[in-house]
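User: Here's a chain of 311 residues. Predict its fold as tokens.
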Amino acid sequence: MQNITKTVVNEFLLVGFLGFHKFYNIIFFVVLLSYIICIFGNTAIIVLVRTYPALHIPMYFFMTIFAVLEIMFSSVTFPKLLSILVNCDYRISMIGCFTQMYVLHALGETECFLLTLMALDRYLAINNPLRYSTIMNNTFCFVLCSLSWIAGFIFPFVPAILTILLEYCGPNKIDKFFCDFAPLQNLACSDPMISNYATTSITITSVISPFVIIVVLYIQIIRTVLKIDSSPGKKKAFSTCSSHLIVASLFYVTGIIVYIRPRGSHYDKFLALMYTVVTPMLNPFIYTLRNTDVKNAFRKLIRSLQKHVSF
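Assistant: Prediction complete.
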């Protein structure tokens, strides 16, 4: 009778950048700088909206929630990545890995729902301006945001539990710099078919569906804007939507490239790096450069700081 010995896995190795030792210093500097800019940029958006009454409208309320999500989203992966680059310690505990996997997807799916709410807000503002303030009151906005957070954390729960319950007894190397559903399911000794199906179903429901809704809403917005007679009116309408449209496009395009394109290339790691840090870093600049109200509030903040410094 043949004895089969199984090794119990109690930690994983994040080896996504294992073959880039020569570039660790450069990668560390880029990641750290991007992370710092992401934190300060998104914090600045939050401070601006909270400070200036002109920005106390639903669109900017959603923007601050999105900025909070971006800070949290980046903070899930990059402290560990920075630690890997400094200490060359690729280990992460099973609990730490599963927690990172779940929270990363929960925050990402919350962002999907929030981007949909932001598109809905722009749709109501342009297509139904007379009833906009009545519909999008403070209570309704708070309820919508709360539901997006709740849904975002509920949807990946089942795939996460199914992935956690798989048996891990063999290889423990994850060819990424963060823990994710697919790499963990591929490492399982038990059959991951059910968890694979659950992950795919949840992705279609919570990621693809919001994307389709955003596209439909913007088609309706564009149709309405094109019917506006005055050029200033068209310009103002497009300017209020452009920043959100760019952010949503950047979020979905990078996400689709990272998760749908064929694996196996070293470029995948850098695309994932762009998706988790560079995109959150760019969003504050997009909102500042493309949005007149935010730009004016930022100028007022700079002038206020200059006055305080001069004294």
